[in-house]
Design goal:
There is one protein chain. By secondary structure, the chain is of the alpha+beta class. The chain contains 22 helices and 16 strands. A hairpin with a 5-residue loop joins strand 1 (84-87) and strand 2.
Length: 781
């Protein structure tokens, strides 16, 4: 029976085979290896396990991505959503501090509602209902792309566009980057209000023609239609936009080049009308407004004004802009805090001094086609820049002549030669030959020939007299004797930050690389401060081996207004962002005092007589380069040092007839501008010598009033201030018939002399035998 058969597998044998014994355990087999058995794989279980791991990995990846994205949120935050404000040293508002993109940040209330409606209608009509990512929009865009077999429509929301524009790296549009942007858009939608997202988007987006941000765009395209809106802090240009204007600006966003009203006016109008139609469809615009708006023309080329610096004195503010960024740590962090941190930057400029500087230059140089001028005025006590003129029109020419214009100094460089000679024990009374001189260049067969103007020589003259008359032959010999290397080193220590060449022509101001008015004023200030270099903790640059000396100060403090008071912030190094005056002795006091005395003689009886101011001690030096291409006067009073340069900004043009038919030398326009400016400054801030005199006169008058009438002495009155040239009857340019000379007019006793004929272009010869730099080597006053 079947039931009697053994059931254990070890006892089973085939019926047609002889019975044999099958081992029940491995150890009974001939081999020690276990028998091979077939393993059955549960595929569903494996798939389930893999699916679970995949889900876990996906969740982990998404979680990690969201955490990484969340870390980007602080980078998108705006601490106060406001530009930093610039004020002068007395708190007078100068404008706002903007970056290279001139982005002006506005609040929600400063953007016209119609502008907000226009951008929403064309860029993200479900803006107020989506969560930062519009899945319907993405699906629609994908379907349109598939039909067209190319990218024809975007599906990103306003939040996504804001994220994309705000993040630094936007060039590689990979899938991960897009997912990251979508996740971040979702994040900010959860954390920020819709109004904040829309405001930030409008403040940062590019609208073409150099306009970043809605206010810049409104000024660029429609500033002329809303006259004065750029100065209205309550209702700026963006708050005054009309429907047609807002629609055109909103339409540009999709493609600033394709919808540029200048390059493609027809396309710009079609796009604008499309925006207006969308606004009408979505109930954001009334029918009558739509009908009127579509009839409006788009702005023409003449109506469009490119963005410009939003400050009263753009040459000065453009100079300190990078300094603010650097003080706040530099890079993107420093830039964001500087331009968008809602700070108040108190500068060193004084609006009264700046107006006086502008007026003085206009009074002497009213002809826009003639020579132009640059000026820098520095406070001797603090090293702070009080006025800076870098050009006539920043928007037409942003090149700053005061800080970037490196021009040859001519004889204005001679005080550094004089100071080094005095250091070497050469006395002012030492006698030198004044005649044509030819020097053999060392290690060369070349010659360095020096002549005075019109071959006018004194025969024998003292170093003091040679300084007064700006004698080339004497200064060349003195400079070569003391060593050009030492002179160059002294000039650098005193404040010249451009490289100073060591060729022999440098003794007469013939440098390979020119100097700026800013550095000349700073270096002469060292003479005025008895040999001490004056700088501050907020100066650009710092002292150190191999570094240029710190420059003049342009920033007094950086802070925030709290409870109506300006409180300094902390800089990255922990210091308060407030300037502290520093000094470093770089020249012996006795040497500096002697230089000051000798340069006072230049103004009293030498080439700088036009700069005289009654009852005020003035020291200074004129400078004129080859063929009258550059003219300088750099001088100081006890309180202020001022450098004035006159010439043609774009290239070296000989000014041989511009001063009423005569050449322009340092003692003409530059000295006259200097005097006119300083007389205005003296009225604003009288020097101590005048205050003492006024006090003595007042006491004398009071005493006379108390005395009996018979014995009363007449009161002593102060000498009237020298009248500045009238702005209505200024000094004429070339071709004029007469020059209304300021008081104490005095032609320079010695006009600029030609450069040594042995050197090409009259520029003198360098130690290597090569020609000196163009415009250098004249060395005349």
């Amino acid at each position: 029976m079947d039931s009697d058969r053994p059931t254990h597998p070890a006892a089973v044998a085939e019926e047609d085979e002889a019975p044999k014994v099958i081992p029940l355990r491995p150890e009974y087999a001939e081999s020690n290896q276990p028998p091979k058995t077939r393993v059955r794989i549960r595929k569903l279980r494996v798939l389930a396990l893999l699916a679970g791991l995949g889900i876990l990995a996906t969740v982990s990846t998404v979680f990690g991505m969201l955490m990484a994205v969340a870390s980007d949120l602080p980078a998108l935050e705006e601490p106060s959503s406001q530009n930093s404000v610039l004020v002068d040293r007395r708190g007078v508002r100068l404008g706002v501090l903007t970056g290279n993109q001139n982005r002006i940040l506005l609040k929600e209330t400063q953007i016209a509602p119609v502008m907000q409606h226009a951008i929403i209608s064309i860029e993200d009509k479900r803006f107020f209902t989506n969560d930062g990512v519009d899945m319907r929009g993405i699906g629609r865009a994908l379907w349109q792309d598939l039909i067209a077999k190319r990218a024809v429509q975007g599906g990103s929301t306003i939040a996504q566009q804001f994220v994309k524009n705000s993040l630094a790296a936007q060039d590689r549009r990979t899938l991960f980057v897009k997912l990251r942007e979508a996740a971040l858009a979702y994040h900010i939608t959860r954390r920020w209000s819709k109004q904040k997202i829309l405001r930030n988007y409008l403040n940062t987006i590019y609208f073409g023609n150099g306009a970043y941000g809605i206010e810049s765009a409104a000024r660029t395209y429609f500033g002329r239609q809303h006259a004065g809106c750029e100065h209205d802090r309550v209702r700026p240009c963006a708050a005054q936009l009309e429907p047609a204007e807002a629609a055109m600006i909103a339409g540009i966003v999709a493609s600033p080049s394709a919808f540029d009203p200048i390059a493609h006016p027809e396309a710009a109008k079609r796009r604008r009308d499309l925006v207006l139609a969308r606004m009408l469809e979505q109930g954001l615009l009334a029918r009558e407004q739509y009908d009127r708006s579509v009839e409006e023309p788009v702005p023409a080329r003449r109506d469009i004004q490119p963005p410009r610096e939003d400050t009263k004195y753009p040459y000065f503010t453009s100079w300190i802009k990078q300094q603010v960024v650097d003080k706040l740590g530099g890079g993107q962090t420093g830039a964001r805090q500087a331009f968008e941190g809602g700070l108040t930057v108190q500068t060193t400029i004084d609006a009264r001094f700046q107006r006086a500087a502008d007026n003085a230059i206009r009074a002497w140089l009213p002809n826009p086609s003639g020579p132009r001028a640059s000026m820098v005025a520095i406070d001797n006590r603090t090293g702070e820049v009080r006025a800076m003129v870098g050009g006539d029109d920043y928007n037409a020419s942003p090149f700053n002549l005061a800080t970037q214009g490196q021009r040859q100094p001519g004889s204005a460089f001679k005080p550094f030669v004089l100071a080094e000679a005095l250091k070497h024990g050469i006395s002012p009374g030492s006698v030198w030959a004044s005649r044509k001189k030819v020097f053999d260049l060392p290690r060369s067969s070349g010659k360095f020939t020096v002549e005075n103007y019109n071959n006018a020589y004194a025969g024998a003259t003292s170093l003091a007299a040679a300084t007064t008359t700006s004698d080339n032959s004497v200064f060349a010999e003195v400079g070569i004797k003391v060593g050009t290397r030492k002179i160059a080193r002294l000039a650098r220590r005193m404040g010249i930050r451009t490289p100073v060449s060591r060729n022999w022509a440098m003794t007469l101001g013939g440098l390979r690389q020119g100097v700026t008015p800013l550095d000349m004023a700073h270096a002469y200030e060292t003479f005025a401060r008895d040999g001490k270099l004056v700088y501050g903790t907020m100066s650009p640059g710092r002292l150190g081996r191999g570094r240029p000396v710190p420059g003049p100060v342009g920033i007094r403090s950086i802070g925030r207004r709290e409870d109506g008071k300006l409180r300094s912030i902390k800089l990255p190094d922990g210091r308060a962002a407030r300037n502290r005056v520093r000094t470093k002795r770089v020249l012996d006091r006795g040497v500096a005092s002697t230089v000051q005395t000798l340069l006072q003689d230049v103004v009293k009886s030498g080439t700088g007589q036009r700069a005289q101011i009654p009852d005020v001690p003035v020291a200074g030096k004129t400078g004129t380069t080859e063929n009258y291409g550059d003219a300088w006067f750099v001088g100081w009073t006890p309180d202020y040092t001022v450098a004035v340069w006159v010439g043609y900004p774009s290239k070296l043009v000989p000014m041989t007839t511009e001063f009423n038919g005569e050449p322009v030398a340092g003692g003409t326009y530059p000295a006259g501008i200097w005097k006119t400016f300083m007389e205005s400054v003296i009225r604003i801030d009288p020097p101590k010598v005048l205050k003492d005199k006024q006090k003595a006169e007042a006491e004398a008058a009071a005493a006379a009033a108390r005395a009996p009438a018979a014995t009363a002495a007449p009161a002593v009155t102060a000498a009237p201030a020298t009248a500045a040239p009238s702005t209505t009857t200024p000094v004429p340019q070339a071709g004029a018939q007469s020059v209304p000379a300021p008081s104490n007019p005095a032609p320079e006793p010695q006009a600029p002399a030609p450069v040594p004929p042995a050197a090409p272009s009259g520029g003198g010869t360098t130690p290597s035998g090569a020609a000196a730099p163009p415009g250098g080597g004249t060395g005349q006053g």
